[in-house]
């Protein structure tokens, strides 16, 4: 996946959950936390990737980092889970519920040291997440969603 995207194989890569310029995504916190790690870690922004390339991206990175000030039910978290991507996130929206029982995830405060500690634990393990199983358990996989939409249309039609 890294080769496909032209990403380095000799560094750890943390994917910021959005573009760096979206204020509500809190890039400043992510940057501070990664700088505290003092390690070979690159923080890259999730911007400009096609759907197909996004799947490679979740597989290529070592961790997804979401430091948002506010969220609802972020799709980026569900997509990362489906790809087994480890996650470090602030406790916003329904993220605690989504990540419940999901390995290789950390819910962190808005303190740079706390975010850095979560990243350090995840990056230090080198393990992938069981997020795909959780997505299926919650009925958030494509087949389950498609079936629910189909049932809505059947009810409306009758």
- Radius of gyration equals 16 Å
Class of secondary structure makeup: alpha/beta
Order of helices and strands: HEHEHEHEHEHHH
The first-to-last residue Cα distance is: 46 Å
* Strand segment tally: 5
Q: Main beta sheet: strand number and arrangement?
A: 5 strands, parallel
Query: Roughly how much helix do the residues carry, as a percent range?
Result: 40-55%
Number of helices: 8
Q: Going across the major beta sheet, what is the strand order?
A: 2-1-3-4-5
The stretches of 5 or more residues where confidence is low (pLDDT under 50) are none
> What proportion of the residues form beta strands (DSSP E)?
5-15%
Overall pLDDT score: 93
- Could you say which overall geometry the principal axes of the C-alpha atoms support? globular
How would you describe what is shown here?
Helix content is 47%, strand content 14%. It has a five-stranded parallel β-sheet with strand order 2-1-3-4-5, sandwiched between helices. It has helices at residues 2-5, 27-36, 51-60, 75-82, 95-99, 112-125, 131-137, 142-157; strands at 12-16, 41-45, 63-66, 87-90, 105-108.
Question: What's the gist of this structure?
Answer:
The chain has about 160 residues and is of the alpha/beta class. Helices cover about 45% and strands about 15% of the residues. Strands 2-1-3-4-5 form a five-stranded parallel β-sheet, with helices on both faces.
What is the secondary structure topology, with strand pairs?
Blueprint: H1 2-5, E1 12-16, H2 27-36, E2 41-45, H3 51-60, E3 63-66, H4 75-82, E4 87-90, H5 95-99, E5 105-108, H6 112-125, H7 131-137, H8 142-157
Parallel strand pairs: 1-2, 1-3, 3-4, 4-5
Helix pairs in contact: 2-6, 4-7
């Amino acid at each position: 996946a890294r080769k496909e995207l032209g990403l380095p194989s000799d560094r750890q890569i943390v994917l910021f959950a959005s573009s760096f310029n979206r204020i509500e995504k809190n890039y400043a916190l992510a940057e501070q936390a990664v700088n505290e790690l003092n390690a070979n870690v690159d923080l890259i922004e999730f911007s400009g990737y096609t759907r197909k390339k996004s799947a490679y991206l979740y597989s290529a990175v070592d961790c997804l980092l979401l430091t948002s000030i506010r969220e609802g039910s972020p799709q980026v978290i569900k997509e990362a889970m489906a790809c087994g991507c480890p996650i470090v996130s602030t406790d916003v929206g329904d993220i605690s519920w989504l990540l419940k029982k999901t390995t290789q995830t950390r819910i962190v405060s808005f303190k740079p040291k706390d975010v850095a500690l979560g990243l350090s634990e995840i990056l230090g393990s080198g393990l992938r997440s069981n997020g795909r199983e959780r997505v299926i358990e919650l009925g958030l996989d494509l087949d389950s969603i498609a079936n629910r939409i189909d049932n809505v249309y059947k009810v409306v039609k009758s």
